[in-house]
Amino acid sequence: MIRPHDHDPGAAADWSAHALQSVAAAGHRSGGARRAVIESLAAQDCCRSAQEIFDQMRADGRRVGIASVYRVLDLLVGMGLVQRLDLGGGMSRYEPALPDGAHHHHLVCVDCGEVSPFEDPGLEQALEGTAARSDYTVVGHDVVLRGRCPGCRAA
Ligand SMILES: [Zn+2]
Ligand SMILES: [Zn+2]
Ligand SMILES: [Zn+2]
Predict the structure, then answer these.
(1) CATH code of 16's domain
(2) Ligand 1 centroid distance, CA of 59 (Å)
(3) 107 alpha carbon to ligand 2 midpoint, in Å?
(4) Structural domain range at position 62
(5) What's 46's DSSP letter?
(6) Considering every ligand atom, which ligand is closest to the CA of 150?
(7) Ligand nearest the Cα atom of residue 106
(8) Can you give the pTM of this predicted structure?
(9) How many separate domains does the chain show?
(10) What is the pLDDT of residues 82-117, one digit of tens each?
(11) How far is the centre of ligand 2, averaged over its atoms, from the C-alpha of 81 (Å)?
């Protein structure tokens, strides 16, 4: 059964605390932009582009340049705290890399670019079986389904 991915505020709060701590432990000064980007990512239930994160921070009245948003995102990706996704549309999207392998996958509309997160336990089980039958030590997987969203299909 495919089900929509629900935002888990508890896991998101744990992740943002962990991310702030890791950045500080790595000896990076905890700048305002860093905290703001981490909080913005934790507040979303799925991925966002750097531009979307920047726009939201501006709307919240934060004076931050888009270059520092990119710098913070690169740092977080480099530390394994954030996952960079290339789902088309000519831009990268970013979402928190949750501990314990917790994750979801994405449906992407080929017309409007909308991204919908989903979870499917049956798919995870099938992929675990594939991993076990391979001669690789599998550490992760990506799954993207492309198609037309309900809105575009109706148009
Ligand atoms: Zn997502
Ligand atoms: Zn669409
Ligand atoms: Zn999966």
Answers:
(1) 1.10.10.10
(2) 22
(3) 10
(4) 3-154
(5) S
(6) 2
(7) 1
(8) 0.85
(9) 1
(10) 999 999 888 999 999 988 788 999 999 999 999 999
(11) 29
